[in-house]
Design goal:
The protein is globular, with a radius of gyration of 15 Å. The chain contains 4 helices and no strands. It has 101 residues and is mainly alpha-helical. Helices cover 50% and strands 0% of the residues.
Length: 101
């Protein structure tokens, strides 16, 4: 689960820098990451949280002991951390005592 949350954070970092880091052509990969783009990413994170999947597709019962990707809130939190900070060092989900959300 920690690896998946870290990946969500890295996705946010990528989105943060997508407008400013030039490709081989010298232009950024994406010219405008809009609020709608960020909202779509957060909606996706919410819909692929283990709690959402178990409650909506797995018979309605949420069993946290079976989580492999994190809850919807955790996934949203870590994506947001990466996007807001743009700093991959803030994506450390493995340190002792880190609050996963």
């Amino acid at each position: 689960m920690r690896l998946e949350l870290q990946a969500d954070c890295y996705a946010g970092v990528w989105a943060n820098h997508a407008e400013s880091v030039p490709t081989a052509s010298g232009r950024p990969l994406i010219t405008d990451v809009t609020r709608a783009d960020v909202n779509a990413a957060l909606d996706t994170a919410q819909r692929i949280g283990d709690d959402f999947i178990q409650s909506q597709l797995g018979g309605g019962r949420v069993d946290e002991s079976q989580f492999s990707h994190g809850s919807s809130a955790q996934r949203e939190r870590w994506y947001s951390t990466g996007y807001q900070t743009g700093d991959p060092a803030r994506c450390d989900t493995f340190s002792r005592g880190v609050d996963l959300g």
